[in-house]
Design brief:
Length: 145
């Protein structure tokens, strides 16, 4: 069967001669952005706004406010971010941790922060994680196989 090139939404590229392993989630991120209709949004170069503070005071209090935000796919988007950050986007750990605290009681400010992360990911889909000096030989695998 050979080496894996694509696993769980992550593209894997190996260069045995240079001992380089590259992992990329461009296709996964593009699918997530399309799913939440953000794939034509503006590009932002940072994942979190300077001075951003998210608090429980920003959560909706009235019935009308709660109904307005009721159908926002906040938890689905944050879950998609968590998968991306664990695999290839470690630079969003802080902000994903910040927004994940409000999954059960979110307000418009929290949703705005999540949309900013999506704009950031849209602008960085071509970035990859690159490991150099990695021994790419797996147990039982050799170039002769």
């Amino acid at each position: 069967m050979g080496e894996a090139r694509y696993v769980l939404g992550m593209e894997i590229v190996r260069n045995h001669a240079k001992k380089i392993l590259v992992m990329c989630q461009e296709a996964y991120i593009k699918r997530v952005l399309e799913r939440f209709r953000i794939h034509y949004s503006k590009l932002i170069d940072t994942s979190v706004e300077k001075g951003l503070t998210l608090t429980l005071d920003q959560c909706p209090e009235t019935y009308q406010e709660k109904e307005k935000i009721k159908y926002v796919p906040y938890a689905n988007v944050v879950g998609s971010f968590m998968y991306a950050m664990l695999c290839t986007w470690p630079d969003i750990y802080f902000v994903v941790g910040l927004v994940s605290c409000y999954q059960s009681n979110l307000g418009p400010t929290h949703w705005k922060a999540v949309k900013r992360i999506m704009h950031y990911l849209r602008g960085t889909t071509d970035l990859v994680l690159c490991y150099q000096g990695v021994d790419l030989k797996l147990r039982g695998y050799s170039d002769a196989n």
